[in-house]
Write a structure and sequence with these properties.
- By secondary structure, the chain is mainly beta.
- It has 2 domains: about 70 residues, no CATH class; about 40 residues, no CATH class.
- The protein is about 10% helix and about 30% strand.
- The strands form 4 sheets. Strands 2-1-3 form a 3-stranded antiparallel β-sheet, covered by helices on one side.
- β6 and β7 form a beta hairpin.
- The longest helix is centred in the first third of the chain and has 9 residues.
């Protein structure tokens, strides 16, 4: 069983379905599902072995890198060279849990 992501005209994932395994029955199912629906269709995998990560609704497909990119978590975050979102300030390395506070653009500890 394989999973397939359907893309809109902006390469945003609109739906993910379970389908036939790639090349099962000698068919290119990515192409077949895309033709059937009239949308671009790209295979995705929970095993993270293709296209960087499993696609979810709202993810973007980067056709140049042939990967799926998660939605931007906060307006201040940017993509690094690995196409991962990173905060403008590094996460503290003291072993304590922090959350991102977009208003102050900093990592904060939860109130106890």
């Amino acid at each position: 069983m394989a999973h397939y992501a359907f893309l809109d005209e902006n390469n945003i994932v609109t739906e993910v379905i379970v389908g036939k395994d790639e090349h099962e029955d000698g068919v290119d199912w990515e192409q077949w599902y895309g033709d059937f629906r009239g949308q671009v269709c790209k295979r995705t995998s929970y095993n993270h072995n293709i296209r960087k990560q499993y696609a979810g609704i709202g993810y973007t497909y980067d056709a140049v890198k042939d990967i799926f990119i998660q939605p931007q978590p906060f307006p201040s975050w940017s993509l690094n060279d690995n196409s991962d979102w990173v905060a403008p300030v590094d996460y503290p390395s003291d072993g304590t849990f922090y959350y991102w506070d977009e208003d102050s653009l900093s990592w904060k500890q939860p109130a106890e």
